[in-house]
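Format notes (please read before filing issues)

Several people have asked whether sequences and structure tokens are stored in separate files. They are not. Every record keeps both together, in the order shown below: the sequence lines, then the token lines. Line labels are part of the format and must not be stripped during preprocessing.
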Amino acid sequence: MLALTKEAAAAVETIVGQPDVPADAVMRITSGSAESNGTGPAHELQLSVVQEPEPEDVVVEGLPMAVEQATIRFLDDKVLDAEVVEGGVQFKLYEQPEEGLPDDSDAEPGDEPPS
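Then the structure lines:
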């Protein structure tokens, strides 16, 4: 399943927690078109705030985030990170480490991406 760094989880909470966003809203990840980028297929992902997840979406446990069913397989081995840049948020996607996330109490979707 998609893992999130602490920064990404905080960014999602902050974005979805804005006063003008409905209480049941979630950040939803969907797939755009897959195109070749010269080194292999490139997957375009879109993040948007929606009033509620679609019935077939997979909801990320503990966060106001949902992933489109067709996108979940692609994200299964990824880590979502976020960085505040020029007053906005830039999300980045990394491969999860081969050994998976560290096995300790803080190793939920909040661990740092691999170097």
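For reference, the curators noted about this record: The mean pLDDT is 83. The first helix runs from residue 6 to 16.
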